[in-house]
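**Polypeptide and fold**
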Amino acid sequence: MSTILDTFIAPPCHEEIAILYQDEHLVLINKPTGLLSLSGKNPQNFDSVHHRLVQIYPGCTLVHRLDFGTSGLMVIARNKAINAALCQQFSQRAVSKVYSALLCGHLKNDEGVIDAAIAKDPALFPLMSICAINGKPARSRYQVIERFHHRQQDGELLALTRVRLIPETGRTHQLRIHCQQLGHPILGCDLYGGRLLPGTERTSRLMLHASELHFRHPVSQEWMTPQNASPF
C-alpha cells in the first residue's frame, strides 16, 4: 500500500473571510480562494477557515469543506449538536449546492449530466481518478449560462463557457474531475487540465465558486437559501 505524502505548502492568503449570516447556532461565510478549509498536518499550513473562525466562535466546527482554490459559501456549526444535525442533512443529500464555474472551450450542449464513479489512488495523490470498478458513484449536472471569448493580454481569444454546476453527490474533486471528463476542464484547475490550453497557464485562480446553498436550519427548521454571486 502506497504512503500518501503531502508536500503542499499553502501560500499566504491575505483575503478576509466574509461573515454573511450568523446566529447562536451557525455561521454562513464566503471563503476566499487560496485558503484551506482545515489546517493541514504540516505546521506551515496552519492558516485555514477553521483556524480563523475558532478565534471568533470558540467550539465551532466545519460541516463540509471547499477545495483550497474554490471560493464561496460554507456553513459552520457553532456546537457539536448543530454539527451533527447539519452533517445528517449532508449525508442524506438533503442539502443542495450550486457552483459557478468557467470552463475551457465552448460546450456543445446547453445542459447535461456527468455520471462517472470517482476513486482515490494513493499513488496519484492528490489526484482522484475516474474508475467504474473501484470508484464511488458520482453524479453532477451542468447548465450553460453563456459562451464567450476572453481577449487576453497578447490579443489572443480564449473560448470559455460560464456554467452552473450542481453536484448530486459529494466526492472529493468531483466537479473538477467531472468537467475534465466532459472535455472542458475548469479554467485555472492545475490538477485536471485547466492550465494546459495556450493562455490558460496565467489564470490567477481556480474559476470555481460555491454560489448557492440550500438547507434547513437545524433549530428553526426554516429553509435557508443563501446566495453569493461569483467574483469572476
Helices lie at 49-56, 80-91, 174-182. The longest strand covers residues 139-151. The mean pLDDT is 94. The first helix runs from residue 49 to 56.
